[in-house]
Amino acid sequence: MPGQEKDFYRDTWVRYLGYANEVGEAFRSLVSVKVVRASYAVAFAYVLADTGDKSWKMLRKDGRFKNVLVETGDALIWQTLASVAIPGFVINRICAFTQNYLQKNVSKIPPKPRSLITVAVGLASIPIIVKPIDISVTMLMNLTYRRLVKA
C-alpha cells in the first residue's frame, strides 16, 4: 500500500532466511543431519530477529507491557508457523513423496541421481509454497490468536 512502511523481515529478500530449513529439508537425502539442523538454526534466528524487531517497534510506539507482549507473541507464533513448522513439514513431505515415487516407479534411476532429483523438486517447491503459507498463517492468526487477544 502506498505510504505504508515496508517490513524488512516480511517484504524483502530477508523473508527467505526463514526458509533456510526448507533448503536443509530439500538436501536431507544428500547431507548430514547436522547440516539440516544448522538450517533450522538459521531459520529460528530469523524468527527471533523478526520477533525482536516487532517487539522493539511496539515498545517504542506504545510502551505498554501488555501490548508489547501481544505483539511479541503474534510475531513469534506467526513466524514459527509460517517460516519453520508448516513449510518444513511441507517440503519434507514433498521430498519424501518424490523419493518414494522415484524409487517405486522409476527404478532404473540409480540412488544418487534419484536424490539429486528429490533435492531439485524440493528446492523448486520453496518459491511456490511461500505466499500460500504466509496467507494461510495470517488467516489462521486472524481467526485465533488475534481474536483472542482483542477480547
TrEMBL record:
Q: Name one GO biological process term.
A: mitochondrial fission
Q: Which UniProt keywords apply?
A: Membrane, Transmembrane, Transmembrane helix
Q: Which domain of life is it from?
A: Eukaryota
Q: Name one GO cellular component term.
A: mitochondrion
Q: Does the keyword Transmembrane apply?
A: yes
Parts of the chain that traverse the membrane: 76-95, 116-133
InterPro entries per record: Mitochondrial_18_kDa_protein (IPR019560)
The Swiss-Prot or TrEMBL record describes its family as follows:
Belongs to the MTFP1 family.
Q: What is this protein called?
A: Mitochondrial fission process protein 1
* Biological source species: Vanessa tameamea
What gene codes for this chain?
Answer: LOC113404932
